[in-house]
Task: inverse folding
């Protein structure tokens, strides 16, 4: 059985298939905007799931008619309201700590050892793009409305969009235009530019596609899958030679039981059964 996730009241967490977790932001009345409690729980969920041996793949989405509408401006806008009398340098250091703590939580999907599939639908503004930039596979429903919305509220996106998406999309000028203008764009444009992997009819179709993929991934060796995620992520920021050395080191100790199980199952024409990792 998976670990206990009942304390995370900002999210709906279920286990629709063996080895598969489904995590959905559960603030539909606020269009799944994130406040302090939401983003703290977000990070903790992925830290916990990274070490949960009963989970091999995670699907992430949002309850209601939006994937995520960004920050809860009403609540987050009041941060520091009691600090008006604080000396400027100390106030700045406090705010910087707030930003880096937020970043530490939002980057957890990237650090999570398990593959994560995002299913985006409806409003997917601002923080939504920060969130999916750290996920492995991105699926978009045709009704999705993406925007790097921070420019409209006087900010540069600071939770990962501007750092990760240049390494994801295939047109840097397009990404810069979006960051400078906060322009809304849809699923087909996102697919053309490499932001999303699949475009589907609606959220239900997206969830169906994601769960099919998650089930398929979960049937593979968890050593191979987690090793592949680690290796691809490492390769993004390193040379080919460094990447080859990293995977050589990984496979030196990783090639063992699962490789034997795969070979024997292939010979016997049966589906391999891999133990927990």
Result:
């Amino acid at each position: 059985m998976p670990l206990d996730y009942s304390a995370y009241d900002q999210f709906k967490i279920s286990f629709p298939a063996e080895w598969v977790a489904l995590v959905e932001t559960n603030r539909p009345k606020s269009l799944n905007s994130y406040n302090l409690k939401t983003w703290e729980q977000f990070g903790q969920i992925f830290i916990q799931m990274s070490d949960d041996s009963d989970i091999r793949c995670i699907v992430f989405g949002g309850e209601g008619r939006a994937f995520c509408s960004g920050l809860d401006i009403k609540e987050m806008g009041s941060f520091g309201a009691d600090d008006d009398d604080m000396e400027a340098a100390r106030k700045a250091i406090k705010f910087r700590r707030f930003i880096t703590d937020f970043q530490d939580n939002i980057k957890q999907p990237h650090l999570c050892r398990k593959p994560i599939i995002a299913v985006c639908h409806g409003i997917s503004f601002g923080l939504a793009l920060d969130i999916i930039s750290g996920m492995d596979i991105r699926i978009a429903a045709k009704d999705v409305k993406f925007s790097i919305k921070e420019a409209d509220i006087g900010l540069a996106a600071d939770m990962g969009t501007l750092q990760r998406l240049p390494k994801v999309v295939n047109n840097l000028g397009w990404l810069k235009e979006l960051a400078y203008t906060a322009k809304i764009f849809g699923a087909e444009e996102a697919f053309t530019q490499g932001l999303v992997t699949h475009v589907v009819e609606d959220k239900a179709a997206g969830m169906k596609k994601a769960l099919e993929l998650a089930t398929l991934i979960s049937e593979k060796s968890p050593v191979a899958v987690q090793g592949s995620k680690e290796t691809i992520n490492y390769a993004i920021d390193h040379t080919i030679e460094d990447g080859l050395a990293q995977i050589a080191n990984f496979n030196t100790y990783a090639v063992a039981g699962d490789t034997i199980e795969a070979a024997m199952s292939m010979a016997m024409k049966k589906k391999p059964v891999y133990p927990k990792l």
Notes: The longest strand covers residues 11-17. The chain is about 45% helix and 15% strand.
